[in-house]
Amino acid sequence: MTLGKSVRIYLKDGNVSGIKLGEVVNYTIQALSCPRNKISDLNRFFSKEVNRPGVYFLIGEDENNQNKVYIGEAENVWERLKTHDTKKDFWNEVILFSSKDDNVTKSHVKYLESRLINIAINANRYKVENYNFPSLSSLPLPDQDSMEDFLINLKLLNGTLGHKFLENPISVNETKIIDLALTAMTESSTIINSLGNLKLELKVKGVMAKAVQTDEGIVVLENSKVADKTKPFGYSTLREKLIKEQTILKDEKENLYFAKNYLFESPSAAAAVILGYSANGRNIWKDKNGQSLNEIEQTQVSV
């Protein structure tokens, strides 16, 4: 059974674009999110929180408007941020994480930095600005477990503050994926939410693609096929972008395919990019029993 968690957000300026202090209720972790133009206020109003060991994210965009993040650690986060304010140009927001107590040390934050860089690279949502990849620092086993628990809440706060670059769109090894049985459809209207993500397929005129429906959208899985020919359609720019950045590649026979998992916001966007023309993804994406997403949703709400 998964238990819920309570997150408390304090808006220092009374609005969502200013400084935000985030906490997971009953845990010692705390997060501070701050736009770059207000960075001097961090030490002014939150001196205790920023002048201690912690990890931080510098978040911004590159010249191609692609999101990117720099991940760092420091024994005194505020002193490190003052250096970055003069030497790094790309970022427009910083999020830093520390502990309310004094039990998180320099060794702990070095461990966290290494883990966070690895997690962000594997998630592949933002470009990771780091050029040095520190090795995992050696910690006693109890401290490792404590930091892994810290990471769980760090990811939770980071996502709550609007950034999901630590969240893997889908991990087949870690995420429970289900094949929705016809018999189960009539038994519970909450089967998808209670059991996991829904495995789907697209089969149209020789094009075969596999995907998983998640809370964020639909993740087209690695090695899914893509039609070679296209017609004018609304997602042509996105398709060209995916080809340019090599998310979609050609095999030795010049056939297009997905080189890695990719998250789409809607089933129709995924279907259009794959087929090369506009299509209603809720009718085309189906489970192993041949039921479309529309049919599955209608069955759910009718129970």
Please summarize what this structure is.
It comes from Flavobacterium sufflavum. This protein is of the alpha+beta class.
User: How many alpha or pi helices?
Assistant: 11
The helicity comes to: 25-40%
Largest sheet: 7 strands, mixed
- Shape descriptor reads elongated
Using the CA coordinates, give the radius of gyration: 22 Å
Q: How far is the first residue's CA from the last residue's CA?
A: 24 Å
Task: Give the mean pLDDT.
Answer: 87
- Class from helix and strand fractions: alpha+beta
How many structural domains?
2
Number of β-strand runs: 15
Q: What's the helix-strand series?
A: EEEHHEEHEHEHEHHEEEEHEEEHHH
Strand content: 15-25%
Q: Which strand order do you get reading across the main beta sheet? A: 1-2-3-6-4-5-7
Low-pLDDT regions: 172-195
